[in-house]
Amino acid sequence: MPEPQRRGPLAGMRVIDLAHVMAGPTCARMLADMGADVVKVEKADGGDDTRRMLPPDIKGEPAAYMMMNRNKRGIVLDLKKPAGREALKRLLKTADALIENYRHDTLDKLGLGYEDLKAINPGLIYCALSGFGRTGPFATQGGYDLIAQGMSGLMSITGEGPGRPPVKIGSPACDITAGIIGAMAVCAAYAHKLKTGEGQFVDTSLFEAGITLTYWQSAICLATGQSPGPMGSRHPLNGPYQAFETSDGYINVGASNQKMYPMLCEVLGCPELGRDPRFITGRDRMGNLDELIDLLNARFRQRTTAQWLERLEAAGIPSGPVLSIGDMLKHPQTVARDMVVAVDHPIAGRVETIGVPAKFSATPAEVSLPAPLFGQHTREVLTEAGFTSAEIEALFAEGAAKETLLPKAAG
Q1: With a threshold of 0.70, does the pTM exceed it?
Q2: Which of 37, 48, 96, 175 is catalytic?
């Protein structure tokens, strides 16, 4: 299967993406952003579930699907049909990696498990993302981001304070983090393959992704035997390091070390707090944090966020506004880092999407492809894999593969 012209550090890598919704597509999207040729294989009965996460849409095209699947080519195969499974196996013979997030043994039952595919491609990297991983007492259970956030302890440390209902992190943090971990693991396995020619099975989960996000709180619990609780925007080990209320909003300030804290007190016009024995050291401040925060909040409420940002920046104290998503997307730093880019979609037109978060000096990554239409590249990818026109038409006739033709340009 000839490689499309892609740029980035993973150019030349070929990935088959069998995943759906969030964790797996995040993993494949990360690889695609770094130049891998990612072919997304969608199920025949409607495709990825994010195609039905509406609203919002742009000219009928779901925004959620387009966000998660840019930089990929898309085909449709019915894996319930033998011909669809055989077509997938032909694609996998020359692939470097497979990404999937089906439940426990779904693909094994179809003859598409790791051992089956390893027999036809020993160099294949098989990445499985699941709710709880492929071993342990929960290996057979399905998992969602919400469930993983609760079981990993994240919801017990998120929220305004003790005695309040548990709160989920606003974004699907376990899904996204699992996808990032999966992409990192695939890259590590790919480095091994380039040295040895050997593929391997890579396994991670939403549950483990959530645990990974508890470094500080797990350190506290492992050292003390006590489970930390929610602290709002506060840091569990240092203070003051949190959001403060201003006269017109909120501002985040990180002034927790011995150099920054007295400087903050000077900026706030209360230098005596920098010498107060209750707040001299980090241990002192954490032991009297509620009292300290009340005193500092009273000062912060006297000026606007912009006024405080100007003073804090001049003093060299780390600080920043609490932005809405809309304000973040328009922020000059977001723009300067190319974190909002646009691609031309055949139906939705010019569509904005999140940019690539890693910058490479020698092999720049880019967003060059819009999310595919349902089956947009089926014929193209099968042809590249050596299927004849007659074989492709037979797959379409049987319903083992589907395609969508691009709309004809006006005029």
Answers
A1: yes
A2: 175
